[in-house]
Amino acid sequence: MKKLALIALGGNALLRGGQEGTIDEQEHNTTETLENLVFLLNEGYDLVITHGNGPQVGNILLRNEAGQQLYGIPRMPVDICVADSQGGIGYMIERMLRNVLIKHNIQKEIVTLVTMVEVKRDDPAFENPTKRIGQIYTKKEARALQVEKGWVFKEEVKKSGGWRRVVPSPRPIRISNEKVIESLARQGTIVIASGGGGIPVYHDENKVIRAAEVVIDKDLASSLLAARIGANEFYILTDVPYVFLDYKKKTERWVEFLNYKDTIKYLEAGQFSEGSMAPKIRACLQFIEQGGYKSVITEATLLDDRKYGTKITMDYED
Ligand code: ADP
Ligand code: MG
């Protein structure tokens, strides 16, 4: 059987810090990132691609709010915003990738799937919403929305002040259509799926599928998908070429190889920041726990240079 790799494109693979977020910028960054995948195709890998949606869904939420305030267009819930972002970003990746394949004379089908990801209604994360989304409101506006919609708000810590909606971030437990994703990928089709961590849904007590007003971590959802489709390798593309120890300290050093035990030790010692590197490390560990051979964290445009990237495996010998 051919090797199967799942590539998770981080926010930075699509949109770099400090950029405005125009579609030209996103298309340019995406093409640069996708050029890196050509060597995997040339080595005969089948591919599944997932992606983040942080800046994009943030903008969708702001447009939502502006539409409500200017034109009275009803606000759409989080699941619809994520679905919109999967369609938009997925299409963009698909078109850029088709052009990269044409340039390299590679014949392959590419398909983008709008993907639901299931969470558990009794996940403890529902008790403690942490993920800040959407615009900053005044105290009065926040209170009105709390009454009208039951949204939960937290005060901004930055000196600009104001209030922001917070939603839970429960663990993904199932990716819909995982069998379809696997069989398409094994037939040689490149599948783009589970964008932005997936459209969050849960089953209620009557087994009805309902939308959840939550945000699912894209690295964890990607790792779950990678394990479920039996991927051999799981790549997280972000804006650092390696995982560092003592990050941003005088003793900072990068690591190229990590085994499972050491990675857990460093995670427990707080070497990886919550909200950025720690969820990526957990996603990498989850993948190899579930039988994956290798997880790699690297910079989005450096994947095809194998000397870059931190490789995490169960045991590292070499
Ligand atoms: P993305 O948006 O691409 O998914 P994030 O911004 O969430 O990525 O996470 C990548 C960031 O993690 C890096 O830019 C870096 O600042 C931060 N980071 C925190 N701890 C570490 C560490 N130990 N080694 C490397 N990067 C780290
Ligand atoms: Mg980021």
Detailed description of the structure:
The chain has 318 residues and is of the alpha/beta class. The protein has a single domain (4-116, 173-313), classed as Acetylglutamate kinase-like (Carbamate kinase). The protein is 37% helix and 23% strand. The chain is built from ten helices and 17 strands. The chain has helices at residues 11-14, 23-35, 38-42, 54-71, 78-103, 139-149, 178-186, 218-228, 260-268, 277-289, and strands spanning 4-9, 46-51, 110-112, 116-118, 131-137, 152-155, 163-167, 174-175, 190-192, 199-203, 209-211, 233-238, 243-245, 253-255, 257-259, 294-299, 310-313. It has an eight-stranded mixed β-sheet with strand order 3-9-2-1-12-16-17-15, sandwiched between helices. A hairpin with a 5-residue loop joins strand 10 and strand 11 (209-211). Magnesium ion (MG) is lined by residues 11-12.
